[in-house]
Design a protein that fits this description.
- With 282 residues, this protein is mainly alpha-helical.
- Helix content is 80%, strand content 0%.
- The protein is built from twelve helices and no strands.
């Protein structure tokens, strides 16, 4: 169900857009993980509405981040990564658009919860699953550089549309560990990809009528100013402390989401089994 449209400015949503963008740009915390979590937990958005709202809000965050990183880069070391990766991410987002129509909110939320758990553990430096996976598969993946860029691009696009994320957690480790880009080059590529990815994802969700007008009016403009502010004072923020705090919060939210969704799924399966037994006993 679409959220009810209210033409009046929503101060809570505007504040959320600004703060998420501020911390995302200033500290390097994934804006999508925060937005989807808060919109579902505190604003009672259904998952598809939250995911589409998140993608729309990440557009200005990724644009500001990409431009700021391009200004600091002397040159792009490997332009072919951009030409190969971004188009396949967009193809992946189109595939994701077809999948999201057929998936229930509860299953998408459960998938997001596990992704959130992985991010929380990485931020708390408990374990870095993407880094471990890429490091373990590095020797196998390096000879297949071009096919792997295409495949990871498609997987990134699908994940982004389904879960409402920019997917920096997937992109940066892949290009640093497997493709062996410099970290700054990989982050710049990630932010540039996010801009095109979230733009295409937003348009897909809009076509599917999952995108409410409220975030466009109340989240996006404050997010732009929040991102600019975050970039400007990023060097003065206690990055490590904030990452730990947000990591702990995301970890707890993920655990809550997973338990809730598994209990709901268990209840549904029990109801189906009871209905089947009742039908057989007649």
């Amino acid at each position: 169900m679409m959220q009810t449209v209210n033409d009046k400015p929503d101060i809570k949503l505007m504040s959320l857009g600004f703060l998420v963008a501020f911390f995302s740009a200033g500290v390097g915390i994934g804006g999508g993980t925060l937005l989807v979590s808060i919109l579902t937990a505190m604003f009672a958005y259904d998952f598809k509405n939250a995911a589409s709202s998140s993608l729309a809000t990440i557009i200005p965050i990724s644009l500001v981040g990409a431009l700021s990183h391009f200004m600091m880069l002397p040159e792009i070391s490997d332009p072919s990564c951009y030409y190969l990766f971004i188009p396949f991410c967009i193809i992946g987002s189109m595939i994701g658009g077809r999948i999201v129509q057929k998936r229930r909110n509860s299953l998408l939320k459960l998938g997001f919860s596990f992704f959130l758990l992985i991010i929380g553990m990485k931020m708390l430096t408990i374990i870095d699953f993407p880094g471990l996976f890429y490091a373990g598969a590095q020797e196998f993946l390096i000879p297949y550089r071009i096919p792997m860029i295409m495949l990871v691009g498609i997987a990134t696009g699908v994940t982004s549309v389904l879960l409402g994320l920019g997917c920096g957690l997937i992109i940066v480790p892949f290009f640093v560990i497997v493709i062996q880009l410099d970290m700054r080059q990989a982050i710049t590529l990630s932010l540039t990809t996010m801009f095109f990815l979230t733009l295409s994802g937003t348009l897909i969700h809009r076509k599917l009528k999952n995108l409410p007008r409220i975030p466009v009016k109340n989240l996006i403009v404050p997010a732009f100013f929040g991102a600019v502010s975050g970039v400007m004072i990023s060097s003065h923020l206690p990055t490590l402390v904030l990452k730990k705090v947000f990591g702990a919060a995301l970890f707890l939210i993920a655990c809550k989401f997973i338990i809730t969704e598994l209990l709901l799924l268990y209840g549904e399966l029990n109801s189906i089994q009871k209905a089947e037994k009742g039908a057989l006993s007649k």
